[in-house]
Amino acid sequence: MAILQRWASSSFAWGFLESLAFADAPLQRWWRASLPGRVQQWLSHWAAGSLAARAAEPVAAGVFCLVLLISPFVPTAAVGAVLAVGLALVVLLFAARTRPLSPLALPVLAFWLSGWVSLIGSPRVLLSLDGWLKMTLYAGGFALGAHLLQKPLYRTLAVGSYLAATLPVSIYGLLQYVNGAPPLATWVDPESPLADTTRVYSFLGNPNLLAAYLIAAIPLGVVGALVWKNWAAKVMAALAAGAGALCLVLTYSRGGWIALMATVLVLAVLLWPWLGERLKPEWRLWVPVVFLGTAAAALVVAVVAVPAVGERALSIFDGRDDSSNNFRITVWGAVFEMIRAYPLTGIGPGNLTFEAIYPFFQRPKFDALSAYSIVLEITVELGIVGLLAFLWLASALLVQGFTVWVRRAELTGALWCAAATCAVVGLLVNGLSDTVWFRPSVQVVWWMLCALIGAEYLRAHGQVDQD
């Protein structure tokens, strides 16, 4: 890690990445000098004695935790209603308290504005308005989290709310595996030996969606078990990580499996140097050997002892011989044609617009509700402009998250940032072959992770008051 720290502090390449991600942009100085920043300062003085202003932050924290608690259990409309309340509270917090801007504010704003541009240029403006409103609500959720998670107490409450919500989700999924669960759709090739395999989906109704929702529980649960001092909280976090990982495996989601491996690998790489500093010298070599050996043995046992796992994993390489692979490849071909027809600003945001335009490009008998890849989905909906904005956001997340961990100005915050960065990696990997990233239960987790990384970056650079 010392080598990485020296490289990050002196490398021209890393300096370029930080500049590209606007990690060191003078946002606070610009904001204070701007008209909106001056208005905010004036309003904060005006609202200093207001009872509503004093109550705004605790209420906002309650709303933010509520949306994390209910998102896997309630319909989309209910999540949207809570996010709408959160958006209103963002406006009140804007007036009540001045806090530093998240370093991710610019890429998030660019991504949201790309949705606005796409809406204006959409061939189905009214349908795209639905998608744009959802983008706005999610951006408001990020803004709310970016404000709140600068305070360690609210960070603990938010992460704890998410982990607490994953426990009943995972337990119900495990019960489905034990007792059996009827498939709600054709999730496995009906002609394959896995046609009768139980794929758990818990309260979310879709195994791929369940896998994506649980990805962040693994790194956040591990770090919670390490840093929380209350033993009940430690046990809850460890159970959330363990049950979440097991339930994710039992979804038989191939994209979820790959994402899980990527998440665990990045988490191990990041935590090993920190753990090594706390071990006796003679243990520093053997711990990674034992860890890698155990992981490899578990993988071999899973593939050999549970034939369904091996069959499902190998089906990734079957190409068009697997019906799920063939379906995705065929849909991707149609989506590429859609992108060529609407390259710059896309067809407009939202699944309703996709469902209206896709039939003009689809192959016979290959109806689809999405592009089955977040990269393709963003490109077809928001065009090249939206894709570039999203790539900017993703790169900023990874650069800032890695920067916080390498520098480790404050250990607890750096550990949380490392966990969030691992979860972001997992969700991005999962999204390469699916679009469950756009579903509310996953979106609220994604924007919480974004807010957490931005808040920890500010804290690592001494820009956050520890109030």
From TrEMBL:
It is found in: Membrane. Keywords: Membrane, Transmembrane, Transmembrane helix. The chain crosses the membrane at residues 61-94, 101-119, 131-149, 156-175, 210-228, 235-252, 258-275, 287-309, 371-399, 411-432. It is a multi-pass membrane protein. Residues 241-391 form the O-antigen ligase-related domain. Its main location: membrane. NCBIfam families: 2A73. This is Bicarbonate transporter, IctB family. It comes from Gloeobacter morelensis MG652769.
